UniProtKB/TrEMBL annotation:
SUPFAM superfamilies: Folate-binding domain (SSF103025). Transmembrane segments: none annotated. Signal peptide: none annotated. It comes from the Bacteria. This is Sarcosine oxidase subunit gamma. Pfam families: SoxG.
Length: 187
Protein backbone atom coordinates (compact mmCIF):
# COMPACT_ATOMS: atom_id res chain seq x y z
CA UNK A 1 0.00 0.00 0.00
CA UNK A 2 1.34 3.42 -0.94
CA UNK A 3 1.86 5.90 1.86
CA UNK A 4 0.85 8.92 -0.26
CA UNK A 5 -2.01 9.55 -2.62
CA UNK A 6 -1.27 10.66 -6.17
CA UNK A 7 -1.80 14.38 -6.73
CA UNK A 8 -4.62 15.06 -9.17
CA UNK A 9 -5.13 18.62 -10.35
CA UNK A 10 -8.55 19.94 -9.24
CA UNK A 11 -9.16 21.06 -12.82
CA UNK A 12 -7.89 17.92 -14.57
CA UNK A 13 -11.33 17.33 -16.11
CA UNK A 14 -11.17 20.76 -17.79
CA UNK A 15 -7.68 20.49 -19.32
CA UNK A 16 -9.04 19.83 -22.83
CA UNK A 17 -11.54 22.65 -22.53
CA UNK A 18 -8.75 25.08 -21.59
CA UNK A 19 -6.57 23.83 -24.44
CA UNK A 20 -9.42 24.46 -26.90
CA UNK A 21 -9.36 28.22 -26.23
CA UNK A 22 -7.84 30.07 -29.17
CA UNK A 23 -7.35 33.75 -29.84
CA UNK A 24 -5.54 36.55 -28.02
CA UNK A 25 -5.33 34.67 -24.70
CA UNK A 26 -4.25 31.20 -23.59
CA UNK A 27 -5.61 29.58 -20.43
CA UNK A 28 -3.17 27.19 -18.75
CA UNK A 29 -3.22 25.18 -15.54
CA UNK A 30 -0.27 25.67 -13.22
CA UNK A 31 1.05 22.56 -11.51
CA UNK A 32 0.19 22.17 -7.81
CA UNK A 33 2.76 23.78 -5.49
CA UNK A 34 3.69 23.70 -1.82
CA UNK A 35 2.11 26.73 -0.18
CA UNK A 36 2.22 28.10 3.34
CA UNK A 37 0.30 30.90 5.00
CA UNK A 38 2.74 32.92 7.08
CA UNK A 39 1.50 35.09 9.95
CA UNK A 40 4.20 37.27 11.48
CA UNK A 41 4.83 40.85 12.53
CA UNK A 42 6.49 42.59 9.56
CA UNK A 43 9.54 43.34 11.71
CA UNK A 44 10.30 39.59 11.77
CA UNK A 45 10.11 38.76 8.08
CA UNK A 46 13.87 38.93 7.44
CA UNK A 47 14.47 35.61 9.23
CA UNK A 48 11.74 33.97 7.17
CA UNK A 49 13.15 35.45 3.96
CA UNK A 50 16.33 33.42 4.46
CA UNK A 51 14.30 30.22 4.87
CA UNK A 52 12.12 31.06 1.86
CA UNK A 53 15.11 31.90 -0.32
CA UNK A 54 14.22 35.52 -1.06
CA UNK A 55 12.79 38.78 0.17
CA UNK A 56 9.15 38.96 1.16
CA UNK A 57 7.11 41.87 -0.20
CA UNK A 58 6.53 44.67 2.29
CA UNK A 59 4.17 46.76 0.16
CA UNK A 60 0.47 45.84 0.46
CA UNK A 61 -1.04 44.09 -2.56
CA UNK A 62 2.32 43.05 -3.98
CA UNK A 63 4.42 39.95 -4.57
CA UNK A 64 8.06 39.06 -5.00
CA UNK A 65 9.64 36.09 -6.78
CA UNK A 66 11.34 33.32 -4.83
CA UNK A 67 13.91 31.00 -6.44
CA UNK A 68 11.20 28.40 -7.14
CA UNK A 69 7.97 30.22 -6.37
CA UNK A 70 6.58 33.47 -5.04
CA UNK A 71 5.70 35.40 -1.90
CA UNK A 72 2.45 37.39 -1.87
CA UNK A 73 1.52 39.96 0.77
CA UNK A 74 -2.06 39.17 1.78
CA UNK A 75 -2.48 41.50 4.75
CA UNK A 76 -0.67 43.56 7.38
CA UNK A 77 0.86 40.46 9.00
CA UNK A 78 0.07 37.75 6.43
CA UNK A 79 1.91 36.32 3.40
CA UNK A 80 1.35 33.40 1.05
CA UNK A 81 4.64 31.64 0.25
CA UNK A 82 4.68 29.12 -2.60
CA UNK A 83 7.39 26.73 -3.78
CA UNK A 84 7.25 24.59 -6.93
CA UNK A 85 9.99 22.24 -5.70
CA UNK A 86 9.49 21.83 -1.94
CA UNK A 87 7.31 19.18 -0.37
CA UNK A 88 4.38 20.78 1.47
CA UNK A 89 5.27 19.32 4.90
CA UNK A 90 8.95 20.30 4.58
CA UNK A 91 8.03 23.81 3.33
CA UNK A 92 5.72 24.36 6.29
CA UNK A 93 8.28 23.08 8.81
CA UNK A 94 11.10 25.20 7.39
CA UNK A 95 9.06 28.41 7.35
CA UNK A 96 7.44 27.75 10.73
CA UNK A 97 10.84 27.13 12.34
CA UNK A 98 12.13 30.43 10.92
CA UNK A 99 9.02 32.37 12.00
CA UNK A 100 8.69 30.97 15.54
CA UNK A 101 11.54 32.98 17.17
CA UNK A 102 9.81 36.19 16.02
CA UNK A 103 6.41 35.03 17.30
CA UNK A 104 5.17 33.99 13.86
CA UNK A 105 3.73 30.83 12.44
CA UNK A 106 3.46 29.11 9.07
CA UNK A 107 0.68 26.69 8.14
CA UNK A 108 0.47 24.41 5.11
CA UNK A 109 -2.25 25.62 2.73
CA UNK A 110 -1.10 23.71 -0.35
CA UNK A 111 -4.56 22.30 -1.05
CA UNK A 112 -6.30 25.65 -0.45
CA UNK A 113 -5.81 27.12 -3.93
CA UNK A 114 -5.27 26.04 -7.48
CA UNK A 115 -3.84 28.25 -10.20
CA UNK A 116 -4.83 29.20 -13.74
CA UNK A 117 -2.59 31.38 -15.92
CA UNK A 118 -3.90 33.77 -18.53
CA UNK A 119 -1.26 34.57 -21.12
CA UNK A 120 -1.44 36.72 -24.19
CA UNK A 121 -2.45 40.23 -25.19
CA UNK A 122 -6.11 39.56 -24.31
CA UNK A 123 -5.47 38.36 -20.74
CA UNK A 124 -6.42 41.59 -18.97
CA UNK A 125 -9.52 42.19 -21.09
CA UNK A 126 -10.70 38.65 -20.41
CA UNK A 127 -10.32 39.07 -16.65
CA UNK A 128 -12.00 42.47 -16.78
CA UNK A 129 -15.15 40.75 -18.08
CA UNK A 130 -15.75 39.31 -14.62
CA UNK A 131 -13.66 41.42 -12.25
CA UNK A 132 -14.40 44.85 -10.78
CA UNK A 133 -10.83 46.07 -10.18
CA UNK A 134 -8.82 48.20 -12.60
CA UNK A 135 -6.56 45.75 -14.43
CA UNK A 136 -4.91 48.20 -16.81
CA UNK A 137 -1.10 47.79 -16.72
CA UNK A 138 -0.71 51.30 -15.27
CA UNK A 139 -2.91 50.39 -12.29
CA UNK A 140 -2.02 46.69 -11.97
CA UNK A 141 1.59 46.34 -13.18
CA UNK A 142 4.00 43.44 -12.72
CA UNK A 143 4.60 42.93 -9.02
CA UNK A 144 1.02 43.70 -7.97
CA UNK A 145 -1.50 41.31 -6.48
CA UNK A 146 -5.09 41.68 -5.35
CA UNK A 147 -7.70 39.69 -3.51
CA UNK A 148 -10.97 40.24 -5.34
CA UNK A 149 -13.97 38.52 -6.89
CA UNK A 150 -14.00 36.97 -10.35
CA UNK A 151 -17.64 36.45 -11.14
CA UNK A 152 -18.79 35.56 -7.65
CA UNK A 153 -15.71 33.54 -6.70
CA UNK A 154 -13.04 34.90 -4.34
CA UNK A 155 -9.66 34.86 -6.10
CA UNK A 156 -6.10 36.11 -5.70
CA UNK A 157 -4.74 37.80 -8.83
CA UNK A 158 -1.00 38.09 -9.47
CA UNK A 159 0.44 40.23 -12.29
CA UNK A 160 3.56 38.55 -13.69
CA UNK A 161 3.68 40.78 -16.79
CA UNK A 162 1.36 42.88 -18.95
CA UNK A 163 0.26 39.72 -20.76
CA UNK A 164 0.73 37.14 -17.99
CA UNK A 165 -1.73 37.02 -15.09
CA UNK A 166 -2.22 34.29 -12.52
CA UNK A 167 -5.56 33.50 -10.88
CA UNK A 168 -5.37 31.56 -7.62
CA UNK A 169 -8.73 30.17 -6.61
CA UNK A 170 -10.09 27.70 -4.08
CA UNK A 171 -10.65 24.27 -5.69
CA UNK A 172 -14.36 24.39 -4.85
CA UNK A 173 -14.73 27.53 -7.04
CA UNK A 174 -12.14 26.59 -9.69
CA UNK A 175 -14.51 24.89 -12.10
CA UNK A 176 -16.90 27.85 -12.07
CA UNK A 177 -14.02 30.28 -12.63
CA UNK A 178 -12.66 28.28 -15.57
CA UNK A 179 -16.14 28.00 -17.09
CA UNK A 180 -16.60 31.78 -16.72
CA UNK A 181 -13.25 32.46 -18.39
CA UNK A 182 -13.87 30.01 -21.25
CA UNK A 183 -17.37 31.43 -21.82
CA UNK A 184 -15.91 34.96 -21.90
CA UNK A 185 -13.44 33.93 -24.64
CA UNK A 186 -16.40 32.93 -26.80
CA UNK A 187 -18.40 36.13 -26.29
Amino acid sequence: MADTLPITHPLESRRELLASVTGPVRLELDDPVAAADLRIDPSGVDAVADAAGGALPMRPESWTPLPDGLAVRLGPDEWLLASATARPDEWERRLDAAAAPAGGTAVDVSAQRTSVRLRGPGARALLAAGCAIDLRPASFPRGRSAQTLLGQAPVLLVAHADDDLQVLVRPSFAGAVVDLLVDATQA
